[in-house]
Amino acid sequence: MNNKTFYHAHRPHPWHGIAIGEGAPQVVRAYIEILPNDVIKYEICKETGFLKVDRPQKFSSVPSTLYGFIPQTYSAEETTKLSKKAVRGDGDPLDICILSELPIERADIIMDVRIIGGIRLLDSGEVDDKLIAILNGDPFYTHIKELEDLNPVVLDRIRHYFLSYKSIPGEAIKTEIECIYGRLEAYKVIEAGRLDYKNHFSLI
Questions:
Q1: What are phi and psi of 138, to 5 degrees?
Q2: Residue 105's CB: how many other CB atoms inside 10 A?
Q3: Which of 48, 88, 158, 190 has the smallest number of Cβ neighbours within 10 A?
């Protein structure tokens, strides 16, 4: 079986088998795992490439945006260097939150998105960047170039979710926000994530 036949006979792994896109880091491809207001946390199965149930959300905090990851990126040594406090990367592809005016009602899809900034989240000492992007070509968001162009309520909802989604009453809070950054810093995070991926998965 030649490579072309093999490719068309099998679905590509969403993390390893889909290109980040020729417009990176400004415009990247994103794979969607979770929809706004999902009460079940879904995530990619690293072994099979299928979307799996990770866990039910225990409490009332639910995502306010489309949520997924950027293919062929990884959070490890290079992404850790961009943080002033993290001790390591979280060992996952880079996470991304995507804004779209019209509702998108299914996950397990890919889309091209335009990067506008991000949140440097720390989770038990691990850096876990949450990039923020706009569905590329969405006419409602044409004027949005940076995070500061968003209505502050939109960013507040994203921040609140990541500060509360793992919180358990009576236990210490595991997540904190080191900083919120704009488009240019987000580009650096993506390039670091691409280099981490190359360093750790160059044989795939």
A1: -70, 115
A2: 7
A3: 48
φ and ψ at residue 104, rounded to 5 degrees: -110, 120
Query: Which residues have a Cβ under 8 Å from the Cβ of 58 and sit 6 or more positions away?
Result: 168
What domains sit in the chain, N to C, each tagged with a CATH number? Answer: 3-201 (3.90.80.10)
DSSP 148: G
DSSP 8-state secondary structure symbol assigned to residue 93: P
Paired strand residues for 160: none
What string of pLDDT tens digits covers the 204 residues of the chain? Answer: 455 555 556 789 999 999 999 999 999 999 999 999 999 999 999 999 999 998 888 777 889 999 999 999 999 999 999 999 999 999 999 999 999 999 999 999 999 999 999 999 999 999 999 999 999 999 999 999 999 999 999 999 999 999 988 776 767 778 899 999 999 999 999 999 999 999 999 765
Helix (H, G, I), strand (E, B), or coil: what is residue 184?
A: helix
Q: How far apart are CA 20 and CA 8, in angstroms?
A: 19
| CA 1, chain centre distance (Å) | 35
> Position 63: which residue type?
P
User: Identity (one letter) of the amino acid at 82?
Assistant: L
Q: What are phi and psi of 23, to 5 degrees?
A: -90, 5
